[in-house]
């Protein structure tokens, strides 16, 4: 093989990472990235089946589904990293944005968090400025660390990324809007970008005008909108968010809220009638097809296996 052919073979064998793919999506200024919230492998598979180009691993959904607990800081780095790694690797060409809460400690722990998420295949993570005993951004009573502590978290993540030569994106989230106001939130986001953040995330905007202002002030830094239905933020479509200047919109409750309604309805039917009332088309095989049956049987067949020929 000639040197040129060898180089071409290496190029073909090196796929674009999920983080690089997210950077490519962000480079298209005419497009807004829509990332539905997924809380487990099944909801992630459904979002992939529908054809989304990006996914979001919700921290609240992870706490609820993996731990059965409220989003009050119960989840540890290991809880979140393990969950993110599973979701990110269901389809490594689709970027996963993942909640990383406060980074789970001081600068050394934040660096460890960035490294763990990088190895897990996460495309982007967001780190916030709440104290360690944090809570969901759409609950009251939040307390924040000072701006120096916050920027040290972002700087530690950026330094860890540089050391790893990783393309992972760092999203700086601030909850200051509800505690100290818009101007302080802007100062915090600007300081976070100066410390190495790639994307700004103002949590809990209460008006469209606040959304437009933060996008204008932070430009050219991309700004993310957290579209939590029935929370602090007014409901917006991706097109409406894009008109305000947002580059990414996440829908954390997109899967877990309808799952609650459907699962509860089925449980009530069993209790009251003794029947689930499930649709006839949702067979065991249908379930397995959603979570990769065809891919799994193809791998077996390609390796010479015959065990799954008659599934």
Structural account:
- This protein has helices spanning 3-13, 18-27, 41-50, 59-67, 77-88, 107-120, 147-164, 182-194, 208-218, 238-244, 256-273, 284-290, 293-302; strands at residues 33-38, 55-57, 96-99, 124-127, 169-174, 199-202, 223-226, 248-251.
- The protein contains 13 helices and eight strands.
- It has two domains: 18-260, Phosphoenolpyruvate-binding domains (TIM Barrel, Alpha-Beta Barrel), CATH 3.20.20; 279-311, no CATH class.
- By secondary structure, it is of the alpha/beta class.
- The chain is globular and about 60 Å long.
List the secondary-structure elements in sequence, H or E: HHEHEHHEHEHEHEHEHEHHH
Would you identify the CATH architecture of the largest domain?
Answer: Alpha-Beta Barrel
Largest pleated sheet: 8 strands, parallel, barrel
Structural class: alpha/beta
Q: What's the alpha carbon Rg, rounded to whole Å?
A: 21 Å
Share in helix: 40-55%
Distance between the termini: 42 Å
Strand portion: 5-15%
Number of strands: 8
Number of domains: 2
Annotated CATH homologous superfamily of the largest domain: Phosphoenolpyruvate-binding domains
General form: globular
Q: Quick check: average pLDDT?
A: 92
Task: Kindly provide the name of the CATH class of the largest domain.
Answer: Alpha Beta
Q: Tell me the CATH topology of the largest domain.
A: TIM Barrel
């Amino acid at each position: 093989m000639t040197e040129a052919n060898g180089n071409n073979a290496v190029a073909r064998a090196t796929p674009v990472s999920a983080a690089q793919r997210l950077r490519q999506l962000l480079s298209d200024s005419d497009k807004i990235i829509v990332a539905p919230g997924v809380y487990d492998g099944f909801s992630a598979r459904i979002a992939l089946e529908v054809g989304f180009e990006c996914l979001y691993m919700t921290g609240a959904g992870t706490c609820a589904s993996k731990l059965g607990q409220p989003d009050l800081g119960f989840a540890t780095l290991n809880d979140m990293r393990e969950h993110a790694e599973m979701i990110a690797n269901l389809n490594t060409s689709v970027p996963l944005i993942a909640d990383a809460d406060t980074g789970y400690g001081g600068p050394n722990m934040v660096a460890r968090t960035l490294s763990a998420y990088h190895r897990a295949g996460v495309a982007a993570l967001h780190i916030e400025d709440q104290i360690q005993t944090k809570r969901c951004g759409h609950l009251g009573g939040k307390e924040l660390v000072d701006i120096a502590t916050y920027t040290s978290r972002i700087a530690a993540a950026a330094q860890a990324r540089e050391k790893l030569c990783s393309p992972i994106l760092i999203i700086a989230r601030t909850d200051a809007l509800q505690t100290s106001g818009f101007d302080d939130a802007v100062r915090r986001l600007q300081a976070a970008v100066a410390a190495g953040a790639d994307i700004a995330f103002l949590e809990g905007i209460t008006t469209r005008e606040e959304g437009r202002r933060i996008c204008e002030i932070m430009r050219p830094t991309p700004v993310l909108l957290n579209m939590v239905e029935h929370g602090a933020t007014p409901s917006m479509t991706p097109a409406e968010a894009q008109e305000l200047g947002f580059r990414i919109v996440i829908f954390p409750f997109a899967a877990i809220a309808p799952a609650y309604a459907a699962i509860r309805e089925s449980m009530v039917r069993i209790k009251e009638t003794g029947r689930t009332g499930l649709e006839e088309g949702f067979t065991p095989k249908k379930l397995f097809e959603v979570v990769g049956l065809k891919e799994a049987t193809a791998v077996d067949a390609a390796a010479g296996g015959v065990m799954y020929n008659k599934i």
